[in-house]
Each structure stands twice: as C-alpha cells, then as structure tokens.
Design brief:
Elements: H1 12-20, H2 29-42, H3 47-52, H4 54-60, H5 66-70, H6 74-81, H7 90-110, H8 113-118, E1 126-127, H9 141-152, H10 160-169, E2 173-174, H11 182-188
Parallel strand pairs: 1-2
Helix pairs in contact: 2-7, 2-10, 9-10
C-alpha cells in the first residue's frame, strides 16, 4: 500500500482523485474551469461531498463548458436549484454563471485562461516540501494575488483560500507531502 497524503485516506474516491489528478500540472482551459467551479462549490463543505456529486455537476453544467454556462439565464438557475445531483446554493450557482462570462473574457484577452492563471506562479509549479499536513497553509502570496486579480475581473467565490485549493488541485502548487508517493511523480510533470 503506497503512502499518501493523509487527507486522501477517507474513501476510495478521495484516494483515486489524489492518486490520479490532484496536483498534476494542468493547462487545459475547460478542466481548469471545472476545478475553479468545484472549488467554489466546496467552500464550507468537504471535498468528499463535491467529488461524490462531480458527475452531477458535469451533467448540470454542460460538462463545465464556459460558453454554454455564460448563456444561462433565470430558467437555468431555477433548474439548477432543483437538481439534487449538485450542491443547490443560489449564490454559488449565480457566481458560476458570472465566472463563466469572466473566464471567457480571460480567454479572449490572453489567448487561454491558463496563461493568466499560471502567471501567478511564473508559469511553473511551486514545489513545497511539507512533511506533515499541519504545515500546509490555507493561502499564499500567490493565492492572495490571484484572488485579488480575479475579483477585479468580476469573478466571485474566489477568495484566497479557494484560489489556494484551486492552485493545489491544478498543479500550480505541489503540496503533496514529501512522504507521499505522488510527491516526486507530480514534481516531474511538465507542460
């Protein structure tokens, strides 16, 4: 049995996510948007809940296509509020629609949203060397800067803690513990 980050030992779904996705450097705009949406919905909840509902989110939000979501109106909000396959929170649903519109603006301005998002770590993953979960911070100067820049561009539910979780998930920051079997694997991943 490999040694993992302790947060991933909760259930099979967490282990699979940890072992295959979390912390792998990601440049795909659609998947980055998915991570951004899921991290916003996770605020105040456990990641296990979000992973359990992930397929429901994909179905409800057109596979996280920002172009489709940016066109959502009041009927879509009502549809989503009735969908028990997702977290039914009006503020987070409305933020997702606004964020899709802002995300498309990023793509138009920078060519890809990834270029803008990765700029907060200089285009390369920051590799930390934590030996225990209690050492891992909830925010960083990079997540503070990302949060501020995104809010200035009209994004919502993008506080520094949410941005830090997003950066960890998308591989912008390698916060696998040094004793975790994924630490070195993820550290070798490149664009």
């Amino acid at each position: 049995m490999p040694t993992r980050c302790d947060w991933a030992e909760g259930n099979d779904q967490l282990r699979h996510y940890h072992d295959t996705e979390w912390g792998v450097p990601l440049w795909d705009d659609r998947v980055l948007f998915e991570y951004m949406v899921l991290d916003a919905f996770q605020a105040g909840l456990s990641w296990a809940i979000i992973l359990k509902k992930r397929e429901g989110f994909r179905a409800a939000f057109h596979d996280f296509d920002p172009e489709a979501i940016a066109r959502y109106g009041k009927r879509d909000v009502q549809r989503l509020l009735k969908d028990d396959g997702i977290v039914r929170n009006r503020l987070k649903i409305e933020a997702t629609i606004a964020n899709a519109q802002a995300y498309l603006d990023l793509q138009r301005e920078f060519g890809t949203a990834a270029e803008f998002l990765w700029s907060f770590v200089g285009g390369r993953p920051r590799v930390n060397a934590w030996t225990a979960s209690k050492q891992v911070p909830a925010t960083s100067p990079e997540s503070d800067a990302m949060s501020k820049a995104l809010r200035q561009r009209g994004f919502r539910f993008v506080g520094s803690t949410i941005c830090y979780a997003f950066m960890q998930a998308a591989g912008m920051i390698n916060d696998h513990l040094t004793g975790c079997f994924r630490y070195k694997q993820v550290g070798r991943a490149r664009r």
